[in-house]
Amino acid sequence: MNPATTSGFRVTRAGPLALLQDAGRFGVRHLGVTQGGPADIHAWAWANRLAGNRWGSPVLEITFGGLELQAEADLTIAVTGADLSAKHDNQPLPMWRRFRVGKGERLVFGSPANGLRTYLAVAGGFSAEPALGSVACVVREHLGGFDGQGRRLAADDRLTVAAPDPVHSDIVEAPPEEQPDYSTPAVLDLLPGAQISDFFGRSLYDAFNAEWRVDDRADRMGVRLLGPSLHCRIESMVSEGISLGAVQVPPDGQPIALLNDRQTIGGYPRLGNLTPLSASRLAQCVPGQRVRLRPAGMERASREHQAFIRKMTASRT
């Protein structure tokens, strides 16, 4: 074990998808390498904030539950995001707050009760060797994660923890207004895209006034939305770079919102781009859940995102 790390957790049962995620992998899209990082940046950031970690510290993203961990040391942790019916030694696990786990104690994440993705942070952050400057796990690209090869967790894997730095959190529990109810209808802010003027008027009306339903074809690459068919005058276009939250409309007229593990380029016209926090909200929507799109201006969206980053990176005492 690296002398700068300590024991963390042993995986006693692996769920369908548990991945280490730091802030993401940047500066490599020209190589065809995608961003990765947390699908829900809001819950991920709050987990680190409560655990006393700096922005970017690796956190375990747990999708759909089914994961069981045993602590191999006394640890300070925080769990945020979806309610996966989690338990701490057979007792309900406290959410959105910092607490202690003793050596030998177990964390069990069950099935989703509210949302899809839970974030487990430990004081000091999980330790892993970076790949292309990040430990963000992208299974498709065999990059990142606890082993550097993009492998999802399996039984008997061990997660080590970096020694905590002197920074510690000045807050024990997230305020109630920062703890979303993921079962409520989601209103997603969308910045108009370069091709929005090429969509027919009826399609633009439908895009922002109809309810959309989250399809079961949804993963860390993107989420397909089902609803009225949207039509664009553009029949073909040269592929261009794709950003987090881009909403493409393929020929079938059903938009696809692209998330962290998206491809780096795409050739479908774009209705627009979800803001980062709206992309996070969509990542917690279960199949069948209803969402609405709301047009947003760049100035307000930028101001809100900068305020979020400042809050999450504020100095702790």
Percent in helix = 10-25%
How would the global form be characterised?
globular
- What's the arrangement of strands in the largest beta sheet? 7-6-9-4-1-12-11
DSSP summary, beta strand count: 21
Q: Element order, helices and strands?
A: EEHEEEEEEEEEEEHEEEEEEEHEH
Coarse structural class:
alpha+beta
InterPro entries: CT_A_B (IPR003778), Cyclophilin-like_dom_sf (IPR029000), PxpC (IPR052708)
Protein name: Allophanate hydrolase subunit 2
Organism: Marinobacter gudaonensis
GO molecular function, one term: hydrolase activity
Q: What would you note in describing this structure?
A:
By secondary structure, the protein is an alpha+beta fold. The protein folds into 2 domains: 5-178, no CATH class; 186-312, Cyclophilin-like (Cyclophilin), CATH 2.40.100.10. It is built from 4 helices and 21 strands. It has a 7-stranded antiparallel beta sheet with strand order 7-6-9-4-1-12-11, with no helix packed on it. The longest helix has 15 residues, at 298-312. The mean pLDDT is 94.
SSE inventory with pairings:
Layout: E1 5-13, E2 17-21, H1 41-51, E3 59-63, E4 67-71, E5 75-83, E6 87-88, E7 91-92, E8 98-101, E9 106-109, E10 114-122, E11 126-127, E12 158-162, E13 186-192, H2 201-209, E14 212-218, E15 222-226, E16 240-241, E17 246-248, E18 256-258, E19 265-266, E20 270-274, H3 276-283, E21 290-295, H4 298-312
Parallel strand pairs: 13-21
Antiparallel strand pairs: 1-4, 1-12, 2-3, 3-10, 4-9, 5-8, 5-10, 6-7, 6-9, 11-12, 13-20, 14-15, 14-21, 15-18, 16-19, 17-18, 17-20
